[in-house]
Every structure is written in structure tokens, then in C-alpha cells.
């Protein structure tokens, strides 16, 4: 018997006969694309259609090939196909349901692709007809809700989520996708929560469910009441919130693991050997090669959960028993990885105990630690647009956390100590820190480390001013909590002070270049006020009296930088230019720092002269400082421990609109034909009852 080859819906015998034969389903599609009702000649037409394996490529291609007028001519048949798809979703036979779901995906994408310039209402009319739209969409959403909540096939649930993701992301700007009005009216929120609360469903579909929820929350969020925002903000079920946290943690862990693998592969490769030979001159180029696709969709989900739901804050500190967190792994347990469907998905919802030794702190890990590690990677390189967006979103999430009273309580809890191995950017002037030497400390130390790392590593020509401002704000908010609650944190504050002084030095050295693009005085004022916070309230939150002495020592040691800053802002504040007002604010803010320098410097010089010492040691300077506090006069500065709370709608709306657009495009791109393949589904439902 001659073998048969298949291509684009055509069947061709590989014998002498070259006449192409069309698949039956393709012939049936062709009947739909005529002006006649296909069921006139064949009353069982629709019943037979949904027993045929869907040819997605042909159906979408056929829709895209038609122009607007041609599409309008067959509108009744398109409406009929859409309605019969919805009816088929209620069938008992799973093959019909599978084919109906696949057909709906093709219809929605095909019609939208063809009508990109037309309004959403025209699309609704083309798919279902205005007169039947409300009832049809209600039936569609109810059917999808039933399939997602049923105990039936996981493959069907997967396809339902695919269809919903297809529906949501069919336009770049989801707020212009008016079909989503029906998804708002006929909510599937509870179905999503059910998936997240069940371990089996979560493992199979958690990723898609979380991404879908993040996108639905962003539909017209500033223009109208979005029921998904309202419902997400009041969820208090522990299993559901933990489930959502597990999905997010796993996706971020997967990113961290991929980066670590690439880093190790890179370090053991030829390039590493070459770098060692010729020194570190290629270090920047080498680092550029370590690149893993960022995951803004899952980061958006984390943001929405942290920002909208106060109860989710508790999830950040929860350990992850499902991720193999056990005290001592006795023997490796084999785990079969399950790949969730969706955009750039993680490989598994389970970390096997065999993998535990690779990461020293995974046994006591939680979502916040995983997120901090992720942030430390994506914030290294802000030149790439996706990483810049990811870095900004990481800092926005940390801002929300730093403002939350409960989050601060566990961040600063002395009984919750962790060893957090953040990724550090390779730099010529410092050695790579040994992971094993990391101390166990409260989580706030890791947040401060991350901020210090960012400050130190991003002083460059393409200066990320916005990220620096957010970074300093986070440090300030953490200090406000420490001052308010009198938390004496044992932290290497000198590293922070040194980083801040170097930042001021950088701003002064690049004054001309930076002022052409940024108001550097806003940032300089924030940095100076951080020092004022330490000077004014440091005795209430610095760990020991000697820490306060060290603060003064650093200010005196680096006095030249503060003197230069004062000269610069004085020069600009006495001119009538555009920087007069912002520069004068910095001038006033420097009053106490200058008082300290002017008070102690003569005392130090006098001490050196009396004792005939050309250069004083740190201990000798500290002795002078301690002996002369009594005669120092400082001015009380108001508002140092006050800050403006984060507000998304007023300041970040444009950023989130662009971010969601980018995520929507990425999700749609990843819902390609191959991810909608029927092979596995048909195997699962191979018996026709």
C-alpha cells in the first residue's frame, strides 16, 4: 500500500498519482468558508466536525487569508461555528471537548489577527454576533469554569487555561480587548484559586493559572472596578496563598538554577581559562555571555500578590516543604519533572533531595530568599530592556515589602536567621566572596546587601537614576522601621556608608554629563538625609555605641567628599539657573555633616600636633571623637523619619501598562501551534465510548 504524506491539510499519495487529496476536516472547513449553511446538506455536519482532529494551521491561515468584506460574508457561519464549539464543551465525550477548545483558540486568534485595526466590538460581532454575545460568552465561561473545577482530565484543564490565555493576550494592550468584559462579568477567579490550592492541579497548571490571574488583574485596572483585583485583595485561605507562593517560588528558582548552571559552565570553559591567563581585562565581556531569559510574567504575579493582598506577606517567609526542604537527605528520591504549560515555564514544581547539596541554603529557603537571589541576578545588567524592567519591578516589590509592618517584623526577627547567597557582579577590584563563609543573619541584612551591591556596581555613563532613587528609598524605609521599633541590627553599616559616599563622589565627578539628563540633587539629598538619619537617630538603632563612633569616623575620614559636595551645591544654589532650588536643599541638609567635620577636624589636628603624630590610627581618631561629643552642637532636622508611601496609579501606571503589553506579547508568542498539539490529548482519549 502506498505511503501517505501530509502537508498543510493536503494528503498526497507517494505513488505515481500526484493529485492532492484534502483531509476530511479541511474539506469541512472549506464548507464553513462558503456563504451556505454547511448543515443544510449534512444535518450531522457539526456533530461530525468535532470528532475530527483539528487542523489549527489551516483554520487560522484560512481566516487570515480573507479580507474584511469576505469575512463579513461568512459571518453567519463563523458565528455558527463559535456557538457549536461552546455547545460541544458540554458534551460527555472528551474528544469533542478537546476539538472544540482547539477550534475556539484558532477562531479567536484567526479573527483577531485579521482585524487588528478594528474595534473590539467588531470582533465580538464577528465571532458570536452582538445579539447572542452575552448569552454565548456566559455559556463559554461557565463551561470553562466547570471543566477547570471538575475532577476530570488534566489535559482538558490545560487546554481550558490555554484558551483563556489565548483570549486574554490576543491584543497587545489587554485593556483594549473588550471580550474580556465577559471574563470580568463571568468570573473564573474561584476556579483559578482551586487550581492553586490543590497540589496535583497546581503542579500541572499552577504556572498558567498564576500568569492568567496576573494578566486579568491588569485589565483596565485604573479605569473601572476590576473584580479580580477586589477578590485577590481579600483572599485569606492559607492553602491557596501558599500554593500561589509555591508556583512563583518554583519559577524564580528555575531561573536561578539555569543562571547558576550557565555560570558554572562558563567558569569551567575555555574562556575562563583564557581570562585567568590574561587577567581580568575580559571580565565584562565574559559576563555578558551569561544570559537567561527573564520572567516578567511571574514577577508581575508576585508584585500583584504582595501589593494587593496583605495576607500574602506571610507567604514570603514560609518554608517550602514541597520543594524538598528536609533536614538531612538520607537517600536521593527520584522525581519525575512535570512541565507546566505557558510562557517560559519552569521545568518542575519539585526539587529533588538529590539536588539539595548544590545549594547550601535551600534547606531553609523561602519565597523571599528565592526572590532576593533572582533580583541579585537580573539587577546586575540593566542595559538590556527586559532586565531593566525586571530590575525596576524587583525594586518596586521590595518597596512594598519595606513599607509593610508585618514584613518588617519578620525581616528583622533575630530568631529567623538565613544564609542568603546573593549573586555579585564580577569586578576587577574585588574577589568573589566564598559562599561557605556567609553568616546566618536576619533577612533584612540580605535586602541591605542587595541595595549596597546595586549602589556599588551601577555607577556608569548610562546612569540608572530611577533605580538608584528606589534603592535609596528602600534603605530609608527600613531605617524608619528600625528607628520606630528601636531594632538594633547587627549589620556591617560601614559598607553602606562607604557605598553612599562613593555614590556622592560619582555624582560630583560626572556632574556635567549627569545634569544633562537627570536632577542629581534629588538623589544627593536622599543620600545626605540617610546620613542625617544615622546622625540624628543612630543611637536608637545602631547595634553598639562604637557603631555610632564609627559613623563619625567615616564622615571625618571622607570629609573631602562632603566638602566638595557642599562647594558644588553652594555654587549652583547661588546662581539663578534651573538647579538653584534643588541644590539649595542639599546645602541646608549638609548642615550637621559640616558641623561634625568642622568640630572634629581641628581637634584631631591638635591631638596629632600635641602627640607629635603625623598620621593618626583609627583608634586614635575614635578616641578624639569620644572625648569631644559634649561640645558638639547639632541642629534638629524635621521629617527625616517620614516618607511618601508607594502609589501605583499615580506614578507607575505608564510603566505597568508597558510591562503588561510586553508580557501579553510574550505569552501569546509562547502559545504557538506546538504547545497546542493534540497528540498527547488524543492518546489520553483514544477510546471512543
Your description of this structure?
With 689 residues, the protein is mainly α. It has three domains: 24-185 and 658-688; 254-265 and 293-321 and 364-426 and 437-472, no CATH class; 492-648, no CATH class. 62% of the residues lie in helices and 2% in strands. The protein is built from 34 helices and five strands. The strands form two sheets. Strands 1-2-3 form a three-stranded antiparallel beta sheet. The chain has a two-stranded antiparallel ribbon with strand order 4-5. Strand 2 (10-13) and strand 3 (21-22) form a beta hairpin. Helix 11 (189-197) runs antiparallel to helix 12, helix 11 packs across helix 14 (238-267) and helix 19 packs parallel to helix 22. The model is unreliable at 1-7, 277-289, 321-344 and 346-363 (pLDDT under 50).
Secondary structure layout plus pairing:
Blueprint: E1 4-7, E2 10-13, E3 21-22, H1 24-32, H2 45-49, H3 56-65, H4 68-73, H5 75-88, H6 94-114, H7 120-127, H8 130-149, H9 154-168, H10 180-185, H11 189-197, H12 199-217, H13 227-233, H14 238-267, H15 270-278, H16 283-288, H17 296-308, H18 313-316, H19 367-378, H20 385-403, H21 405-411, E4 417-418, E5 441-442, H22 443-457, H23 465-485, H24 493-509, H25 511-515, H26 520-541, H27 545-557, H28 559-573, H29 580-589, H30 591-610, H31 618-627, H32 648-651, H33 653-670, H34 679-684
Antiparallel strand pairs: 1-2, 2-3, 4-5
Helix pairs in contact: 3-6, 5-6, 6-9, 8-9, 8-11, 9-12, 11-12, 11-14, 12-14, 12-17, 14-17, 14-19, 17-20, 19-20, 19-22, 20-23, 22-23, 22-24, 23-26, 24-26, 24-27, 24-28, 26-27, 26-29, 27-31, 28-29
Amino acid at each position: 500500500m502506498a505511503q501517505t504524506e501530509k502537508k498543510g491539510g493536503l494528503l498526497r499519495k507517494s505513488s505515481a498519482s500526484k493529485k492532492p487529496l484534502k483531509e476530511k476536516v479541511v474539506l469541512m472547513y472549506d464548507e464553513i468558508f462558503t456563504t451556505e449553511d454547511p448543515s443544510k446538506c449534512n444535518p450531522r455536519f457539526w456533530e461530525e466536525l468535532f470528532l475530527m482532529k483539528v487542523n489549527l494551521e489551516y483554520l487560522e491561515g484560512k481566516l487570515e487569508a480573507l479580507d474584511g468584506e469576505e469575512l463579513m460574508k461568512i459571518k453567519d457561519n463563523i458565528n455558527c461555528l463559535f456557538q457549536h464549539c461552546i455547545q460541544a464543551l458540554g458534551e460527555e465525550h472528551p474528544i469533542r471537548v478537546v476539538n472544540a477548545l482547539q477550534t475556539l483558540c484558532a477562531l479567536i486568534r484567526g479573527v483577531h489577527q485579521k482585524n487588528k485595526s478594528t474595534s473590539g466590538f467588531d470582533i465580538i460581532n464577528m465571532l458570536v454576533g452582538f445579539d447572542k454575545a452575552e448569552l454565548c460568552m456566559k455559556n463559554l465561561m461557565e463551561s470553562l469554569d466547570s471543566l477547570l473545577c471538575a475532577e476530570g482530565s488534566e489535559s482538558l484543564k490545560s487546554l481550558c487555561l490555554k484558551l483563556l490565555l489565548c483570549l486574554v493576550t490576543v491584543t497587545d494592550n489587554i485593556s483594549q480587548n473588550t471580550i474580556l468584559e465577559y471574563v470580568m462579568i463571568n468570573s473564573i477567579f474561584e476556579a483559578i484559586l482551586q487550581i492553586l490550592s490543590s497540589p496535583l492541579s497546581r503542579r500541572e497548571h499552577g504556572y498558567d493559572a498564576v500568569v492568567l490571574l496576573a494578566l486579568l488583574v491588569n485589565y483596565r485596572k485604573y479605569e473601572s472596578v476590576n473584580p479580580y483585583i477586589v477578590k485577590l485583595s481579600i483572599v485569606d485561605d492559607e492553602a491557596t496563598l501558599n500554593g500561589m507562593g509555591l508556583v512563583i517560588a518554583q519559577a524564580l528558582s528555575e531561573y536561578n538554577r539555569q543562571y547558576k548552571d550557565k555560570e558554572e559552565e562558563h567558569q569551567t570553559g575555555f574562556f575562563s581559562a583564557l581570562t585567568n591567563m590574561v587577567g581580568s581585562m575580559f571580565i565584562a565581556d565574559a559576563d555578558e555571555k551569561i544570559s537567561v531569559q527573564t520572567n516578567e510574567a511571574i514577577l508581575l504575579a508576585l508584585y500583584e500578590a504582595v501589593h494587593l493582598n496583605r495576607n500574602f506577606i506571610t507567604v514570603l517567609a514560609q518554608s517550602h516543604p514541597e520543594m524538598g526542604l528536609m533536614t538531612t537527605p538520607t537517600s536521593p528520591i527520584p522525581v519525575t519533572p512535570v512541565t507546566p504549560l505557558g510562557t517560559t515555564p519552569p521545568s518542575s514544581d519539585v526539587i529533588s533531595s538529590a539536588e539539595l547539596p548544590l545549594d547550601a541554603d535551600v534547606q531553609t529557603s523561602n519565597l523571599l530568599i528565592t526572590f532576593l537571589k533572582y533580583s541579585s541576578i537580573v539587577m546586575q545588567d540593566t542595559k538590556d530592556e527586559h532586565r531593566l524592567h525586571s530590575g525596576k519591578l524587583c525594586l518596586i516589590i521590595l518597596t512594598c515589602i519595606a513599607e509593610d509592618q508585618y514584613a518588617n517584623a519578620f525581616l528583622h526577627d533575630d530568631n529567623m536567621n538565613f544564609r542568603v547567597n546573593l549573586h555579585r557582579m564580577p569586578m576587577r577590584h574585588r574577589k568573589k566572596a566564598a559562599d561557605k563563609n556567609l553568616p546566618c543573619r536576619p533577612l533584612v541584612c540580605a535586602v541591605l546587601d542587595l541595595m549596597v551591591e546595586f549602589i556599588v556596581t551601577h555607577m556608569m555613563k548610562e546612569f540608572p537614576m530611577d533605580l538608584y532613587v528606589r534603592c535609596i528609598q528602600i534603605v530609608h524605609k527600613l531605617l524608619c522601621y528600625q528607628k520606630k521599633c528601636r531594632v538594633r541590627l547587627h549589620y556591617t553599616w560601614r559598607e553602606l556608608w562607604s557605598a553612599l559616599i562613593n555614590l556622592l563622589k560619582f555624582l560630583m565627578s560626572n556632574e556635567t554629563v549627569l545634569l544633562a539628563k537627570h536632577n542629581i540633587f534629588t538623589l544627593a539629598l536622599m543620600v545626605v538625609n540617610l546620613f542625617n538619619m544615622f546622625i540624628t537617630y543612630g543611637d536608637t538603632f545602631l547595634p553598639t555605641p562604637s557603631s555610632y563612633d564609627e559613623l563619625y569616623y567615616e564622615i571625618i575620614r571622607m570629609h573631602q567628599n562632603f566638602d566638595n559636595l557642599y562647594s558644588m551645591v553652594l555654587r549652583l544654589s547661588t546662581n539663578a539657573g534651573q538647579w538653584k532650588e534643588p541644590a539649595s536643599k542639599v546645602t541646608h541638609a549638609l548642615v550637621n555633616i559640616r558641623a561634625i567635620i568642622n568640630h572634629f577636624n581641628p581637634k584631631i589636628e591638635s591631638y596629632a600636633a600635641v602627640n607629635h603624630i603625623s598620621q593618626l590610627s583609627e583608634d586614635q581618631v575614635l578616641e578624639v571623637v569620644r572625648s569631644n561629643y559634649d561640645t558638639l552642637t547639632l541642629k534638629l532636622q524635621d521629617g527625616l523619619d517620614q516618607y511618601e508611601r508607594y502609589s501605583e496609579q499615580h506614578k507607575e501606571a505608564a510603566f505597568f501598562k508597558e510591562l503588561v503589553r510586553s508580557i501579553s506579547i510574550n505569552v501569546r508568542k509562547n502559545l504557538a501551534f506546538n504547545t497546542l498539539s493534540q497528540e498527547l490529548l488524543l492518546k489520553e482519549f483514544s477510546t471512543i465510548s
